[in-house]
Amino acid sequence: MEKVRIEDLKPGMVLGRTIYGTDGRILVKENAEISASIIEKLRKLGLPAAYIRQTDDSDRPDLVSDATRMDLIRSLSKIDTEVRAGGDPNLGSSKIPLYDLVDEIVRNQRILLGMTDIRLHNDYTYGHSVHVAIIAVKIGLQMGYNQLKLADLAVGALFHDIGMTKIPLAILEKTDNLTEEEMKLIQTHAEVGYNMLRQSQDISNVAAHVAYQHHERYNGSGYPRGMAGDAIHEFARIVAIADVYDSMTTEKIYRPAKPMMEAMHYVDTRKGIDFDPNIVDIFEQVVAV
User: How many CA atoms lie less than 13 Å away from 106 in the CB half-sphere?
Assistant: First the structure.
């Protein structure tokens, strides 16, 4: 399959992967022939790109099923809505589909990380959180974690950006450069997320610290506390890599995704600076270049 930016789609192309809405509804089904009306519909929905089937494509199993991904995206969307309405979110509601995700990755452990999700512009945060969890669990599995440890890592990875639910949507959905004040507000999400998670009986203290520390950097240059090296929890060091890699390789309305090789090269050049060198080496073993 080939990833094609929305502005480069042409009538007659055949869709390679089903496109879903946040609520799990199928917007356009796999193998549908692209028409001008479908292109316009996707553009209005804010889809930056789509996977197009090639004549020599052969079907291969996914690391994680669409059903599990969509269950998690729906649960994150519901949590976001509850927080923004001033309610008390049920974070535990995400655990069953999240444990399904861990089970699928363990079952499909021979499948490497490959195609990234393509997300609607206003669904970016949910899809990003799910894919960061997938990458993190895949790394943890390669590091020899058992399923209990993988499950705890998955919870921390899924909720690493939960503090973003306290950031105004006008800032999160902004497509031009953030102001200095807006950037400082965005950076509060790590501590805000930690405080949200540690108050929940459904979330372990370790998982809460992933939200707190995933923007810390190996050389101490990160935030919010400027922690360095092994002082940063190993789960957070894993999620830091997954977070940056997924962000770089995700298509966005305002900029195309970086190629996988370029994103991997960036991560590799930041070994010992931003990222734990040993975890970078393991990460590079699980990506299908």
Answer: 15
Q: What is the pLDDT of residue 116?
A: 58
- The pLDDT tens digits for 123-140 are 678 889 999 999 999 999
Strand partners, 50: 4
Is residue 77 within 8 A of residue 102, CB to CB? The reply is no
Q: Tell me whether the omega of the peptide bond preceding residue 61 falls within 30 degrees of 0, making it cis.
A: no
3-state secondary structure of 69: helix
Cα separation, 145 vs 127, whole angstroms? 24
In degrees and rounded to multiples of 5, residue 230 shows phi and psi of -75, -5
**Nearest alpha carbon to residue 157 among 237, 223, 253, 218:** 237
The answer to whether residue 55 scores a pLDDT higher than 90 is no
User: What pLDDT is stored for residue 20 in this prediction?
Assistant: 81
28: its two tokens: 């356009």
* Buried-exposed string 89-108: b where 16+ CB fall within 10 A, e elsewhere: bebebbbebbbbbbebbeee
C-alpha dihedral sign at 23, 24, 30, 32: negative
- CA–CA gap between residue 277 and residue 255 (Å, rounded): 29
pLDDT in tens, 86-107: 998 889 889 899 999 999 999 9
